[in-house]
Amino acid sequence: MGFEVLSPLTPKCCATLLRALHLDRLNKNLHGHVTIVGMDLTTLLKIKQFKGLRLEETAGEIAIFGELVETEKVCPACGKEACKPHQYYRKRIRHLSVFNQPTYLCFTQKLMLCQCGKLFLERLDFVGLHRHYTQAYEEHIYELCRGQDMTRVGDLEGLSWGEVAGILKKSGTGEGAPALGAGCRHKRNLVPG
Q1: Is the model's pLDDT at 66 over the cut of 50?
Q2: How does pLDDT run across 36-53, given as a tens digit for each residue?
Q3: Is 93 exposed, middle or buried (0-12, 13-18, 19+ CB in 10 A)?
Q4: Which residues of 13-43 are buried (b: 16+ CB within 10 A; e: fewer)?
Q5: What does the pLDDT look like over 128-150, one tens digit per residue?
């Protein structure tokens, strides 16, 4: 029995993924990718720079372990490509929830050393520098805040009000900012201007 190809993290896709988890339908193909009856985990996530290798469900959370591919390693100071990793950092980045379970991408990011002596992190398209959430997750939070107050969004996503406000502040709310936090009953729920 095969599954149809689904767009990433829709309710139908989430149900398919969890069904596969509970029915032990996760397999590894020859290249080490996790597959769900012919569907590659990397394809499911649709994140170009992240290759999903392993998926774990523990304590009500889903962790997708993987590695970075095709990252930018150009020095911001001199513009040359750095080829020597200086240090490695383990990252755990919040991504869109799968079937109402918080989902995290787990990977190692390199701190690069350029010939000019500058240290910098390899650049990622799917998460901002020094951020703890994927851009897709931040956009999801922003959209939730357009119709609900920030306290409610925090309760739904398991975030504090300050974390929601931080996501909105860092994402530069831009147009539509007055609509954020609609229905707020407290001044503290308004987005700082």
Answers
A1: yes
A2: 555 677 788 889 999 999
A3: buried
A4: bbebbbebbeeebeeeeeeebbbbeebebbe
A5: 888 899 999 999 999 999 989 99
